[in-house]
Amino acid sequence: MVKIRDIINQIDTVSGVCPQCHEEAILVAIISDYYRCTNCGEDTRQYINGSIQYLSISEEDRTWLKNQR
What we know:
The chain is of the alpha+beta class. It has helices spanning 4-10, 59-68; strands at 13-17, 24-31, 34-37, 43-48, 52-56.
C-alpha cells in the first residue's frame, strides 16, 4: 500500500525566487526543468549556468508544455 507521505516525498520541489512575483517561493516541478510557483501560480523554466535561476517562460514554452500533458 502506497502511503501519501511517500508520494509527497517523490514530488520535485525547490526553493527559489519567482521571476513573476519576485518572492522567495517553493517551486513545484510540473515537468523536467519547468516549475510552478506556489505563491502566484506562474510557470517558470529552470536555467543553470554556474548558478540556478528561474525564468519566465515564453509563448513557445507554453505551447510545448501544453503538448506534453
